[in-house]
Design goal:
The protein has 13 helices and 18 strands. The protein is an alpha/beta fold. Strands 1, 2, 3, 4, 5, 15, 16, 17 and 18 form a 9-stranded mixed beta sheet that branches. The radius of gyration is 22 Å and the shape is globular. The two termini are 27 Å apart.
């Protein structure tokens, strides 16, 4: 070994299977070459004769960088809402080393190869962490999907209900048929915003109620909308091998439907991860409940909505029973004036990318989980979904040395002055969270330390044929 190698030490090294005192050896390319016990790490230090750089985190845990596969960066087109530089700076501060950008709410949306290239050009040179990209499925773009696959998008997202922005229309059954046909054999994944209205919609009823009361908004998007959507999606599964993924599961009532669909696919011999039927939930659904949301505070508004405490606890049970696969942020910011006190009219989206790791750990540690749960649900799962499992998501040889020194005992209060994403409005202001990111490394290079993002952006765009 030469001086270009690094050895990261921790008394709490967190891998997928165990937590122990040890070290991670990283080569000059920023790739993990070995994971050592403390005894073997000490031997390596003695034998290297100062030719290896030792980075000792002491009591801080050493965990794999978080992979957040659901982030709305909104650049280009809506850069007053968010942008690549601010979103990835916030991610680095939150121990996230890879984000995957959603195809909306940028203008143009990522629905053609030309639009993807426009977005990539906006991002290039401005990302502190690595960035992957989702493509979008909208009405009439099925002929563009295969070239987006070839360009390296991780998969595709569509809406079964209005998206909230005109340039990303929701799809019909016919559009889905065309999309599944176009994606067959590509190995890609089609992700769904899974809410579908029907004739029993509560809109007339809610229009007669106080729109500042959160309950009014909650009743406008009942669990039945999620059940309707999952029912439609599962009708396609016997006719296609395309992987499907449900984003931001809010209602626990849909999980048994997904379990049945997954079991049927596995029984039919589908060899993809989880039978090609996966689902995520979000930090806000696992951290918040409808009963605690004050009147007129639309920073809590998202779609599908945050539901009651009983639903929250059911989501946690399904997650820990491996019936949900991962936890992501669905970071979806906007400018302050769009978050008015009217919950029916306000923009639906929660800003939280910087705090996802601490939000999860606050809840997980209270449930007596250990830090392997962080790796499983915040890193391994999202990496697997996005086809990044051979590069990202865990501490093991051959993967990028995306590493975080994490003080799992320390707490902090969320205040606007520490928020790095562009717009500071978030439901977590004033909340005490457990777990503090001390240092974040991307491919072995320090990108964040003790409150400061380091130097210039070092992130890469995770696309094919892109010169990073």
């Amino acid at each position: 070994m030469t001086g270009q190698y690094k050895l990261f030490l921790s008394k709490r090294l967190v891998t997928e299977k165990e937590i122990f005192s040890g070290g991670v050896v990283v080569n000059e390319s920023g790739v993990i070459v070995d994971v050592l016990s403390r005894n073997d790490a000490d031997k390596l230090i003695a034998e290297s004769k100062d030719e290896i750089e030792v980075i000792d985190g002491g009591e801080c845990a050493l965990i794999a960088g978080v992979v957040d596969s659901h982030v709305h960066v909104n650049e280009p087109g809506r850069t007053a809402w968010e942008g690549f530089r601010t979103a990835t700076s916030a991610a680095a501060a939150g121990g996230i080393t890879t984000i995957v950008d959603m195809p909306l709410n940028s203008i143009p949306p990522t629905t053609t190869l030309e639009n993807l290239n426009i977005k990539a050009n906006s991002a290039k040179g401005h990302v502190y962490v690595d960035v992957g990209f989702w493509g979008g499925v909208i009405v009439g773009n099925d002929s563009s999907l295969r070239e987006l696959v070839k360009a390296g998008v991780v998969g595709f997202k569509c809406f079964l209900c209005p998206s909230g922005v005109d340039e990303f229309p929701n799809v019909s059954r016919k559009d889905l048929e065309l999309a599944f046909k176009a994606l067959e054999g590509t190995g890609s994944v089609l992700a769904f915003h899974a809410e579908l209205e029907d004739d029993s919609s509560n809109k007339k009823k809610t229009n007669e109620q106080d729109p500042e009361e959160y309950k009014t908004y909650l009743e406008s998007r009942p669990p039945k909308m999620e059940i309707n959507a999952i029912t439609l999606i599962t009708e396609f599964l016997a006719k296609t091998n395309v992987r499907v993924h449900i984003v931001h599961v809010s209602s626990a009532s849909v999980v048994p439907l997904l379990e049945s669909a997954r079991a049927a696919r596995i029984a039919a011999g589908h060899d993809a991860w989880r039978g090609g039927v996966t689902a995520e939930t979000c930090h806000h659904y696992l951290s918040l409940s409808a009963d605690e949301i004050p009147k007129g505070h639309s920073e809590y508004k998202c779609a599908p909505p945050i539901r009651d405490l009983d639903n929250k606890e059911k989501l946690w049970k399904y997650l820990l029973d491996d019936k949900l696969d991962m936890v992501v942020s669905d970071h979806s910011p906007c400018t302050p004036e769009l978050k008015c006190s009217n919950n029916l009219e306000a923009w639906g989206g929660i800003s939280s990318v910087q705090f996802g790791l601490s939000l999860f750990w606050t809840q997980a540690s209270a449930r007596n989980l250990d830090m392997r749960s962080i790796t499983k649900y915040l890193s391994v799962g999202p990496a697997q979904l996005c086809g990044l499992e051979k590069r990202k998501g865990a501490i093991k040889p051959g993967l990028d040395a995306d590493l975080v020194f994490f003080d799992h005992e320390e707490s902090f209060v969320v205040t606007s002055d520490i928020i790095r994403h562009k717009n500071k409005l978030t439901p977590y202001i004033g909340k005490v969270l457990k777990g503090v990111v001390k240092k974040t490394y991307l491919r072995g290079k320090l990108i964040y330390a003790d409150g400061e993002v380091i130097e210039q952006p070092k992130g890469k765009l995770l696309l094919k044929n892109v010169d990073n």
